[in-house]
Amino acid sequence: MTYAGLTLAYWAVVVAALLPVGCAGVAKWGQIGRSRRDGGLDNHNPRAWLAKQTDWRARANAAQANSFEALPFFIGAVVIAHQLGAAQGRIDMLALVFVFLRMLYILLYLADQASARSMVWGLGLLVNLAILFV
Fold it and tell me: Is 1 helix (H, G, I), strand (E, B) or coil?
């Protein structure tokens, strides 16, 4: 099944690629437009500003980094599965499951649910392997 020339799995790649951007937005939420003197986002040096954040902002930034780290394997697995001619329905279903797990992972990261987050990360890895070998 394709939409605008892309399979559902490729659309899942697009969504997964945008998840880190969403995490960055959450980390900076409410701080854009506040002055640097008042603790607002320092857009001149945003990485140093983010490194100083605590609690949910720090976890959102960490979720952003992990989302970027998870992306290459997911993209590779989807592309390889397509090129090997795997069943499109299976690739699509597994890709959607991966994106769902990544969204759940981010929410668990923000909620400081470390054990559940790690379990969901592991499930995401298994789904990636399943996509690769489907």
Answer: coil
Q: Which domains does the chain have, with CATH numbers?
A: 2-133 (1.20.120.550)
**For residue 98, pLDDT beyond 80:** yes
Supply the pLDDT for residue 4. 79
Provide DSSP, 10-46: HHHHHHHHHHHHHHHHHHHTTTTTS-GGGT---TTSH
Contact in structure between 95 and 48 (CB atoms under 8 Å)? no
Are the C-beta atoms of 99 and 13 separated by less than 8 Å?
Answer: no
Mean pLDDT for 50-56 is 83
Q: What global pTM score does this model have? A: 0.88
